[in-house]
């Protein structure tokens, strides 16, 4: 096993995961807001994405690693620290990768009418969370918020599925932003 | 107290729950935020307190608390009931958090049956203890059926029930746990808060609801539309006792009626004791304030 796989976990899991969860909760509850989230390091991932995985995932959460993020080193890190099964998009509770590599969104579960929560959460690794490219309204937004998004059409299509649909986290460095399925996205 | 590994010096984990349970609850909380008003199933754990004490709320608080939080617990508006004191002590001991009775100083407030009078801010989280999360339960006892009704937005029966109230009483008699529709989609039980509190459900803080026995978590994100169900000819009326608080003179708060002597004398006081004390400290006086009564 690579040394990389053994390192990069939390030194103090209960406390670091509590701070990380609050950052994720705040980000998803307030689309457009950028939060800091840190404490974990994984091969080829931003600190934010590694920390989010470590905070939310375990043996009960199948993960899909998109091409470009499906390295052996990351697979071993996940096996050691998280124990999550690696699966294809159609069985993923979480999906991780760059935006283009994660496409198409139609490959991931959107939940069922009785259980809309059984939908994939996508963790999208991006270069940066600014400058904003989209205008956001909806739950969590008092008037209007702004956010950098890779494109806008897929999020409009996702919103049209509500209450089904995908929920997104965008990660870069130590930063995280969230976009739940309820957000109405328009070009800036 | 926590040692360097973050484990508490006793033999339980930080905030009592083990990390795997917290992850499961945290995932449910995020889905709840993403689908406002929808009840997310979760695997509720046994807590060292009876169900009636809000084990759902306690588990949600445990999954949210960090050592940097300042925690407040209210029971029907009061910080000093046995229930509130016990839960506060539980997290003082297991999560090593600061606690407070002042609404504005708290970062997480766990509540049973009230929303604080003071407006909450973006930096706060309100956690509700919920006894019965399913607003359609009294119409339909079967979970498979209520789930289908939510899926199909089949809320006609709910309106029929409210309209029967009007036929019988001349107005909608439901005064607690008054059902709301969240973001135009899910009908939700706001827990047994007085309907007076319903307009406050649209707020800046994150609202999280935990039902322990029924194993459900749901949420209202900040600035989410929350509409109390009503009819054009009988609009929602968040009425309260038509009297001011006898201690602080407030005419805009939810009041408890208290019997004060053997002769059946009564007084009205703010149910939110911290809010009432704050007003009195600012010099506001009511009919029965010690000074006014002299
Ligand atoms: Zn008062």
UniProtKB/TrEMBL annotation, chain A:
Keyword Transmembrane helix listed: no
Keyword Lyase (UniProt): yes
GO MF entry, a single one: lyase activity
A Pfam match: PhnH
Keywords carried by this UniProt record: Lyase
Entries under InterPro entries matching the protein: PhnH-like_sp, Phosphonate_metab_PhnH
SUPFAM superfamilies referenced in this protein's UniProt entry, alphabetically: PhnH-like
GO biological process: organic phosphonate metabolic process
Protein name from the UniProt record: Phosphonate C-P lyase system protein PhnH
Organism whose genome encodes this protein: Maritimibacter harenae
Organism classification: Bacteria, Pseudomonadati, Pseudomonadota, Alphaproteobacteria, Rhodobacterales
Protein encoded by which gene: phnH
UniProtKB/TrEMBL annotation, chain B:
GO molecular-function term, one example from the UniProt record: 4 iron, 4 sulfur cluster binding
Keywords for this protein: 4Fe-4S, Iron, Iron-sulfur, Lyase, Metal-binding, S-adenosyl-L-methionine
EC number: 4.7.1.1
Organism annotation: Maritimibacter harenae
Gene Ontology terms describing biological process: organic phosphonate catabolic process
Catalysed reactions, semicolon-separated: alpha-D-ribose 1-methylphosphonate 5-phosphate + AH2 + S-adenosyl-L-methionine = alpha-D-ribose 1,2-cyclic phosphate 5-phosphate + methane + 5'-deoxyadenosine + L-methionine + A + H(+)
Its job: Catalyzes the breakage of the C-P bond in alpha-D-ribose 1-methylphosphonate 5-phosphate (PRPn) forming alpha-D-ribose.
Family listed: Belongs to the PhnJ family.
Name of the protein in question: Alpha-D-ribose 1-methylphosphonate 5-phosphate C-P lyase
